[in-house]
UniProtKB/TrEMBL annotation:
<keyword id="KW-0408">Iron</keyword>
<protein>
    <submittedName>
        <fullName>Oxidoreductase, variant 2</fullName>
    </submittedName>
</protein>
<dbReference type="GO" id="GO:0016491">
    <property type="term" value="F:oxidoreductase activity"/>
</dbReference>
<dbReference type="InterPro" id="IPR005123">
    <property type="entry name" value="Oxoglu/Fe-dep_dioxygenase_dom"/>
</dbReference>
<dbReference type="InterPro" id="IPR027443">
    <property type="entry name" value="IPNS-like_sf"/>
</dbReference>
<dbReference type="InterPro" id="IPR044861">
    <property type="entry name" value="IPNS-like_FE2OG_OXY"/>
</dbReference>
<keyword id="KW-0560">Oxidoreductase</keyword>
<dbReference type="Pfam" id="PF03171">
    <property type="entry name" value="2OG-FeII_Oxy"/>
</dbReference>
<comment type="similarity">
    <text>Belongs to the iron/ascorbate-dependent oxidoreductase family.</text>
</comment>
<dbReference type="InterPro" id="IPR050231">
    <property type="entry name" value="Iron_ascorbate_oxido_reductase"/>
</dbReference>
<keyword id="KW-0479">Metal-binding</keyword>
<feature type="domain" description="Fe2OG dioxygenase">
    <location>
        <begin position="83"/>
        <end position="210"/>
    </location>
</feature>
<dbReference type="GO" id="GO:0046872">
    <property type="term" value="F:metal ion binding"/>
</dbReference>
Length: 264
């Protein structure tokens, strides 16, 4: 709890959440020690991560086609067989206000996850029914709750749909044509007012990242060329072209503290 601070410029203390990160598996094996409770599920986790990767590849292919560039432009830069990347699969637990874990909660200070954009290309978010809290920033700077299921979707299906976030790197690659989604996780108003006990929130996130040495230069798309509101400091006018790893290291340093070089 409070280890990660996703909005260091505005948060007075770290996020009210717990998380466990999985790095990329090799030959279906985790490259890190696993808690004893997860060891029997290593093969299942590996299969799920492989399905997430394939889903990301499909989405990236469709985005490439929509931008009018070769269909494999993004996927070749996410090919894990060619080198390391920042791909991360994360289990997340956000306690409710009634949980003993939140006994020190202060309404005007604390948040489950501070406002941020994701560091990679795209994110796949898996949520559970009845556990709200996710909000996205609107164009006017306000916040809007994100429903677990679209209003028109039937709740008879087993699981809610996957929520897909655009990350920083797609924004860099497209000079801001595809905007990185700024979002946060809050304690629902009903919990804060005491009108509802609420549930703990559990979710899983698959953060798709390109290869570490991938350069963050605009894609060869006419649509991107026509969209000239490039993000300051990046893109074709940048003094120094950043790599995917450079960007990830700078974001991790801002979140956890330290020098970006420590995260490379």
């Amino acid at each position: 709890m409070h280890v990660e601070t996703l909005d260091p410029n505005h948060q007075k203390r770290g996020d009210f959440k717990e998380a466990f990160n999985f790095g990329e598996f090799k030959n279906d094996k985790a490259q890190q020690p696993l808690p004893s409770s997860l060891v029997p599920h290593e093969a299942e986790i590996s299969r799920f991560m492989n399905l997430c990767r394939k889903t990301c590849d499909r989405i990236l292919t469709l985005l490439a086609l929509g931008l009018g560039i070769p269909s494999d432009w993004f996927t070749t830069r996410h090919d894990s067989s060619k080198g390391p990347s920042g791909v991360t699969f994360r289990f997340l637990y956000y306690p409710s206000i009634q949980s003993p874990s939140t006994s020190t909660f202060q309404q005007n200070i604390d948040v489950r996850a501070g406002a941020h954009s994701d560091y990679g290309s795209i994110t796949l978010l898996f949520q559970r029914d009845g556990q709200p809290g996710l909000e996205i920033q609107t164009p006017t700077g306000g916040w809007a709750p994100v429903p677990i299921r679209p209003q028109q979707e039937s709740t008879t299906t087993s699981f809610p749909p996957i929520l897909v976030n655009i990350g920083d790197l797609l924004s860099y690659w497209t000079n801001g044509l595809l905007k990185s989604t700024v979002h946060r996780v809050v304690f629902p108003v009903e919990q804060q007012s005491g009108s509802s006990h609420g549930d703990d929130r559990y979710s899983m996130a698959y953060f798709c990242h390109p290869l570490d040495d991938t350069e963050l230069v605009p894609v060869p798309s006419k649509l991107v060329e026509q969209h000239r509101d490039a993000i300051a400091g990046y893109g074709p006018n940048a003094d120094k072209i950043m790599t995917a790893r450079d960007h990830l290291a700078s974001r991790l340093a801002a979140t956890y503290g330290g020098n970006p070089n420590e995260y490379k």
